[in-house]
Amino acid sequence: MPAETTGAPEWAPDALASAVETATRRGWQVEIHAIGDAGVRMALDAYERAGAAGAGDPRTRRHRVEHIETIDPADLPRFGALGVVASMQPFHADPAPNQIGIWAGNIGPERASRAWAWRSILDHGGCLAFGSDWPVVPFDPLIALHGAVTRQTPAGEPPGGWLPAERLTIAEALAAYTLGSAFAAHAETRRGMIEVGRDADVVVLDRDLLMEDPSAIAGTRVVVTVVGGRIVHGEGAA
Q1: What is the pLDDT of residue 46?
Q2: C-alpha angle 159/222/154, rounded to 5°?
Q3: Quick check: 121 pLDDT over 60?
Q4: What pLDDT was estimated at residue 68?
Q5: What's the angle, vertex CA 124, arms to CA 22 and CA 185, rounded to 5?
Q6: Domain-located, residue 230
Q7: 3-state class of 109 per DSSP?
Q8: Quick check: bond before 141 cis, omega within 30?
Q9: What is the pTM of this model?
Q10: Which long-range contacts (CB under 8 A, 24 or more apart) does 101-106 make?
Q11: Half-sphere exposure of 79 (CA within 13 A, CB side)
């Protein structure tokens, strides 16, 4: 990552590491916005330095890196090793030509070849937490789920998917949206799965996603929404 090919970070590395160490000592959870490979490494370095300085086990803080659009392969195992949550937004990887073409042109083919590496981070033991990043991109999680599983636009382009080696199974993508996000928010005992005693925030879909061809995900319709055990949308909502 030569200096002439990197952007300008908002923090100097030592200042960021010092701030993360202070926050970790105070028991805070830190979330660092990092898009490029240099920024992701800088964030991971800060978390690692906080642990090495005896500020406390970063794994208990569940520090996060937000976005992670491209990552150096050497940093893939560090999410699992450091207990850092990879907080990512699948719709950012929508491979529409006017989106990915411009993005890849700006960062070059080598960096673009390791874009939105969900599969690689998961396979190296990292925790994925999916979200929308709304209002920057559409809020609809079903469109984003489709992208996470197919690496295609909702219209099915490109054939076979863009960087298909980074596709997730539908079960893995759902887990990132539910269990992963609950874990990232220190709420895994209340949310993330359907179980007696947990918050009853549930949606009922018009199909079983686990039984469907991935290409059908984008057409899924929500028929009932339950919040706190109360139907707020769909059949019986009135």
Answers
A1: 96
A2: 15
A3: yes
A4: 98
A5: 45
A6: no
A7: helix
A8: no
A9: 0.92
A10: 103/69
A11: 27
Q: Is 90 exceeded by the pLDDT of residue 6?
A: no
- 10 Å Cβ neighbour count for 73? 11
Residue 38 is encoded by which pair of tokens? 């240099």
Q: Centre a 10 Å sphere on the Cβ of residue 238 and count the other Cβ atoms it contains.
A: 4
Strand order across the 31-34 sheet: 31-34, 64-67, 85-88, 127-130
Q: Is residue 206 part of a domain?
A: no
CB environment 110-146: b (16+ within 10 A), e (fewer): ebbebbbbbbbbbebebbbbbbbbeeebeebbbbbbb
* Domains held by the chain: number: 1
In terms of residue numbers, what domain contains 184? 3-193
d(CA 83, CA 175): 17
Quick one: tokens of 193? 């799965």
**Tell me: the pLDDT tens digits for 56-103?**
777 789 999 999 999 999 999 999 999 999 999 999 999 998 888 899
Q: What span, in angstroms and rounded, lies between the C-alpha atoms of 99 and 210?
A: 29
What's the token pair of residue 146? 């489709």
Instruction: Give the span between the Cα atoms of 60 and 77, in whole angstroms.
Output: 18
CATH number at 98 reads 3.20.20.140
| pLDDT for residue 106 is more than 70 | yes
114 occurs within a structural domain: yes
For residue 233, being part of any structural domain is answered with: no
What is the pLDDT averaged over residues 135-151? 92
Question: How does DSSP classify residue 173?
Answer: H
